[in-house]
Amino acid sequence: MNLIEIRHLRKDYATHKAVDDISFVIPKGSIFGLLGPNGAGKTTLLRMITGIFYPDSGDILFNGRPFDPHTDIHSIGYMPEERGLYKKMKVGEQALYLAQLKGMSERDAKARIKYWFDKFEINSWYNKKVEELSKGMQQKVQFISTVMHNPDLLILDEPFSGLDPINANLIKQEIFDLSKNGTTIIFSTHRMEQVEEICDRIVLVNQGKKLLDGEVKQIKQDFKQHLYRVGFGVMPNFAQVATYHFSIVNTEPLAYTVKLSEGSTTNDILAHFINHNIPITSFHEILPSINEVFIQQVTSITGHAPQSATANEPAVASSNS
Prior knowledge:
Layout: E1 2-12, E2 17-27, E3 31-35, H1 42-49, E4 57-62, E5 65-66, H2 69-72, E6 76-79, H3 91-101, H4 106-119, H5 135-147, E7 153-157, H6 165-180, E8 184-188, H7 192-198, E9 201-206, E10 209-215, H8 216-222, E11 227-232, H9 238-241, E12 246-252, E13 255-260, H10 266-275, E14 280-286, H11 290-302
Parallel strand pairs: 3-8, 3-9, 6-7, 7-8
Antiparallel strand pairs: 1-2, 1-4, 4-5, 9-10, 11-13, 11-14, 12-13
Helix pairs in contact: 3-4, 3-5
């Protein structure tokens, strides 16, 4: 079943279409990547899914029924890229306050705070003010505040920003654990290697339009270019390798990258080397990375590769809602 269904969603600002007739679904328990260059419409989509913005047209279904921000918001945890902690407030008091905003009783909230503070080994921070913490420390507090109420939907916008590798790995493991326990996660980032490592499915948007969506594994298969890396114990000479079954596109020490010709199969590649008594030490298909698919799709629309630029979506105050 799908936790979220987006149907023909539109949102216009004064000068441009931020979201232009976008539809996709997010299965329950999945880790779903929302991708796109700056200004593509990602933040506007997230703010509509959380009820911060209302769409101009289209529908958002939550658990199979129309999304109601007033009731469904307690089932959502949202960690925006612009963090929303109160600098002058103590960490423990803030966590308690935010948990109660999500409808938790004081008793339950304190129990969950203890659980998460123990888990992240940050009990010593309880009476520290947020402004006394480093950016990475604040990030951990923000994450805890977002997940304390056990949301059905967890939205993470650049969750690893400011974290060192150890704490980034800690948060990543928590994301996997939450997903295994049934939480549906929307993961928005510009770091394509993180998407490939973490996400089950993705949607790619650009200039307010959806370019593609689906399972990460299937997308990589759909955009493969029939490239293979063949490793050797001893490098063969070119005359031995030449054949109509494939062409050589790259050479490296003791390996070739070859492109399979139309009508040929991988068996033809292997048979060619075997027939020439060339020992093969390794053989595998080279699939495109999500970053390569991302660049290819955006470039095909815009005529140039995506660049880091200031997002042209209007800013709103940070929110933990």
